[in-house]
Amino acid sequence: xxxxxxxxxxxxxxxxxxxxxxxxxxxxxxxxxxxxxxxxxxxxxxxxxxxxxxxxxxxxxxxxxxxxxxxxxxxxxxxxxxxxxxxxxxxxxxxxxxxxxxxxxxxxxxxxxxxxxxxxxxxxxxxxxxxxxxxxxxxxxxxxxxxxxxxxxxxxxxxxxxxxxxxxxxxxxxxxxxxxxxxxxxxxxxxxxxxxxxxxxxxxxxxxxxxxxxxxxxxxxxxxxxxxxxxxxxxxxxxxxxxxxxxxxxxxxxxxxxxxxxxxxxxxxxxxxxxxxxxxxxxxxxxxxxxxxxxxxxxxxxxxxxxxxxxxxxxxxxxxxxxxxxxxxxxxxxxxxxxxxxxxxxxxxxxxxxxxxxxxxxxxxxxxxxxxxxxxxxxxxxxxxxxxxxxxxxxxxxxxxxxxxxxxxxxxxxxxxxxxxxxxxxxxxxxxxxxxxxxxxxxxxxxxxxxxxxxxxxxxxxxxxxxxxxxxx
Length: 473
Ligand code: FAD
Ligand code: NAD
Hints:
alpha/beta, FAD/NAD(P)-binding domain, 3 domains, 5-stranded mixed beta barrel, 21 strands, binds flavin-adenine dinucleotide, binds nicotinamide-adenine-dinucleotide
């Protein structure tokens, strides 16, 4: 192990490891410190995203979707599968294998790029020195020209429902259940609540989500959120809004006391998932004599280029402002690497796509209708339902819509919102269009293959000008 680096990255999640690889590609000598240890005691690269976030959650969403298909959907296609049996431990094993394959892949990429993986805790000292404490062994001081902080985030805890990962779980625990709880409560009907709720609802749990806000998915365009809620409730998930959880008591079951507009309420469940947001992870990150600026919510303060208040020290990913999304962090990691060598890297924060991997999927980029209204921006809207596309009908997924908003005078696309099948893939086209400052007319004049789900995007663009073909505008 060297003690002298061009760049030391603290944190090997999608922000840190991607930034590290880009630094190495640009000829810099890189060391990456990461303290993550998986459940079998092995250190693992990839951070929250690969180990306990994006990847394992999608693995379980895909498995539970297959189960649902076998159980309920294949028969209508003329496929009889007989009795369907659920093997949850195998589902978890498959999820673990997906995670191990991908995290192992990063290890290979580190080797190929000659990046040193330092397994243990990193702490920023003064003068761009970093204290590295290996999992086993003594702390040592490393020197670097540049330091990138990429320490990610951790779940927010609430006093009313302390997590024990037995009966009261956070997302880590919700990814490890080996049997289907009869009843599952979820505090927080946000992204994690809906994704984890969907998994266990599909596998047979009775899922009830308790959300503090009066609005369902407040950050999502309200027309899209309304359609999504209708579908989730049709699947059996119960969404209760305006809930103030007061406390939870554990016995044979978990008893949750909460209040809503009707007064005091009680909910009995077998497992309770707490998914009320995540906070930036800066625990024991800086030495006392390092004056790293953080904001009032604990995020490391950075400018548009992810530079902190300390020259040569950068911060990227969940630990800084902006959406807590893997691809946002990765872009920041690449930007910082390029700027370190004097290249003009930047991130377009206006075109970061969001996806919620439920069924139907929800995906969006750009402004919501409410934000355009409150900014007084003149706009035109085009919507198109998947029910009118041949492909969605053939797939038996005729649910949801595409909604495009464009500036009323310039026709520039300002926001695209999708609820429906494969919204996660369809949103890519919208991101590209916005990145190139396309107009709705540009999308409308782009040839889309038939029959595809992307025809709904095309038709919504035509609808902005009131000329969708398969819709009475
Ligand atoms: P992290 O991935 O959190 O990585 C930080 C790493 O730094 C960790 O390995 C941590 O152990 C390490 N570390 C922290 N402090 C230190 C220290 N002092 N010394 C050494 N190491 C340290 N995002 C999406 O875009 N799409 C999704 O589908 C998606 N699904 C998600 C599902 C779940 C259940 C969860 C919890 C999150 C999901 N996210 C998703 C969010 C995504 O995981 C995060 O936005 C992303 O992981 C942030 O990347 P990061 O590199 O900033 O931090
Ligand atoms: P979230 O912010 O998406 O949702 C938290 C929800 O909990 C909100 O609706 C909030 O109003 C509610 N809430 C807060 N306090 C509450 C309380 N005391 N009682 C009841 N409800 C309460 O956060 P999350 O679902 O925990 O996920 C954290 C972050 O991880 C997300 O914001 C996202 O950035 C990331 N993530 C992304 C994906 C994805 O991209 N598909 C998936 C999972 C997580």
